[in-house]
Design the sequence.
């Protein structure tokens, strides 16, 4: 039986993430430092919290209403994006995450509370040794994970994919771990190792 344990992070986190609303879309733009953010909320009310990172220059949690789409662009640095870590997260339409270069972590905490996306999910981690944890999410439309260069890890556990799902490893030695409980499993391309619980 295989298992992955998330160890306490030793990375230096800092920087400023700019949050802006355009129409019904919340856009989060990082800098070249190692940014860490938590994204939570339901029914169009989304909260963003920085951990060692300020949001719009503030150390306090920021809340946004009327949000249907979330776009995250974090540029360079070793970034961490937590989704649903502090509570439920329901995004009414689409979610896009681009962490660019660096050793990045994108973590869906759906095994703790409700985590649903009413549209599609698109994740691009760029170069570096990246980790993506798809845990306990329900997605109405397509899911695309593009790992870029580097040796990367994807964990998939107790997910409900109601449309297509695809993971592209590209360069490096990439691993996908099927921890079970999924209604279907993503199509894989350029993945060197697949582990099944």
Sequence:
């Amino acid at each position: 039986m295989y298992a992955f344990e998330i160890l306490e992070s030793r990375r230096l986190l800092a920087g400023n993430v700019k949050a802006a609303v355009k129409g019904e879309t919340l856009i989060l733009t990082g800098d070249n430092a190692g940014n860490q953010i938590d994204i939570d909320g339901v029914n169009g009310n989304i909260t963003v919290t920085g951990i060692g990172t300020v949001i719009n220059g503030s150390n306090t949690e920021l809340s946004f209403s009327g949000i249907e789409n979330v776009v995250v662009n974090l540029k360079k640095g070793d970034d961490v994006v937590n989704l649903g870590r502090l509570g439920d997260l329901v995004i009414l339409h689409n979610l896009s995450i681009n962490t660019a270069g660096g050793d990045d972590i994108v973590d869906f905490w759906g095994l703790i509370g409700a985590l649903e996306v009413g549209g599609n999910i698109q994740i691009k981690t760029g170069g570096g040794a990246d980790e993506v944890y798809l845990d306990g999410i329900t997605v109405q439309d397509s899911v695309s994970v593009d790992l870029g260069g580097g040796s990367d890890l994807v964990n998939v556990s107790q997910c409900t994919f109601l449309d297509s799902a695809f993971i592209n490893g590209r360069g490096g030695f990439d691993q996908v771990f099927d921890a079970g409980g999924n209604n279907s499993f993503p199509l894989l391309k350029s993945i060197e190792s697949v582990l099944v619980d």
Q: What stands out?
A: Residues 137 and 159 are 5 Å apart (CA to CA).
